[in-house]
Amino acid sequence: MPQIVYYHRGAGTEESKIAQYLGGVFGKGVVQDVADTYRFICDNYNPGDEIFIVGFSRGAFTARSVSGMLCNLGLLNRVGLSQFGAIFHDYQNFINWKPSTKFNKKDHLVGFTLSNFERLEKFRLAKEDRTGRSSLAAMEEALDKEKHTFFDIMKNCKGETTQKRLRAMAQKYQDRLEKVRDGQRMDCFVPTEVKVKAVGQYNI
Fold first, then answer.
1. For the purposes of burial, counting CB atoms within 10 Å of the CB of 10, is it exposed (0-12), middle (13-18) or buried (19 or more)?
2. Are residues 85 and 168 in the same domain?
3. Do 68 and 40 lie in a common domain?
4. Scanning 14, 30, 53, 89, which has its CA 20 to 30 A from the CA of 135?
5. Of 127, 130, 32, which is closest to residue 84 (Cα–Cα)?
């Protein structure tokens, strides 16, 4: 059976002695490790593929994190990956979105923009409103309102445990991603649901 093997050098394995120290002691770079590994899998996955992830020592945390992201968010296609940085920013901050958290349009739901907004075409046809603002301003205002409403839904997701609550939030986010389109080509992001066959963890 053909295989694609990916090895990612973990925290503390950098060539620079300073980088080794920082990575080994503080786990510096782990978030980037998770993002890089997830992106690689998205780029190379084909329907029917089996995914095996193995992590040693601090890499075990990376392995668990990548597996969780794959199962919770699915795999973004090539169109979705164009917004990966913003989507990953949202994903890693789910845990900070509490019922008391106030919506901040600069920091919350940044994966959804005017260029990929599902109702872009509707607002693109809007004329200047009575105050004389441009259609773009009206579109931005409408987007902010919808994101605010969706953020309220996200932050109030419930679960018996933190893990179940985060899973519910990820499902809501994934459902919204399925409706997102690239503003220029109108291609859908459509995350692909996958299952990780096995996760190997070796801690010391």
1. buried
2. yes
3. yes
4. 89
5. 32
